[in-house]
Amino acid sequence: MAWKHYICELSGKPASVLIDDRFAHQSPVKELPRISWFSVYCNQPTSGEFWNPEEADILDRLENDLIRLSEMFGHGWAVYVLRVATFGIREYYLYHADQAELSKAFSALKAIYPNYRIEFETTNDIAWEQYRRYVFYDPNDTA
Predict the structure, then answer these.
(1) Taking the alpha carbons of 129, 131, 135, 138 in that order, is the dihedral positive or negative?
(2) Which of 12, 44, 92, 118 is in the most buried spot, having the most CB atoms within 10 Å?
């Protein structure tokens, strides 16, 4: 994987974007037409950071569990491509086929981390528009 990181503004707020850019020029749009979004709300207050450094270890474990569970319930038909962090929230985006059961990954993740507010949604994104919004973003382009 070739992960790219940059800082940008989303709706007037700073955001940290981490994206797997290996699909920039050839996305498996026919095979993976659905996108699932997981949102994790931090428990500790932030002070000018995207998340409290004291909470980083548990957030990283949660992220690793999210990826592991998505692989398990994705049945080989899910790919994690994007994380967007804003102050106090980490959002994860995975593209997948209809066979993937990421709602089960969501339920399992909530069971492991009951003290965290975690939200989940799945929708169609046949053209990978959400991904393209971020993969071709140029943080140095001021126009």
Answers:
(1) positive
(2) 92
Q: Where do the structural domains in the chain lie, given as residue ranges?
A: 3-21+31-135
In 3D space, the residue among 15, 21, 27 whose CA is nearest the CA of residue 96 turns out to be 27
Model confidence pLDDT, tens digit, residues 3-55 = 999 999 988 899 999 999 999 998 888 999 999 999 999 999 998 899 999 99
Backbone dihedral region of 2: left (phi > 0), alpha (psi from -120 to 50 degrees) or beta? beta
Neighbours of 3 (CB within 10 A): 12
CATH class of residue range 3-21+31-135? alpha beta
Helix (H) or strand (E) holding 70: helix 56-74
Element (H, E) at 64: helix 56-74
- Confidence (pTM): 0.93
